[in-house]
Amino acid sequence: MYIGIFLIICAAVLMFRVAQYEKRRGWLWGSLTALIILLLSQVILSTYLPSLVGVILAYMIMMAANIYRPVNKGPI
Question: What's the whole-model pTM score?
Answer without folding.
Answer: 0.85
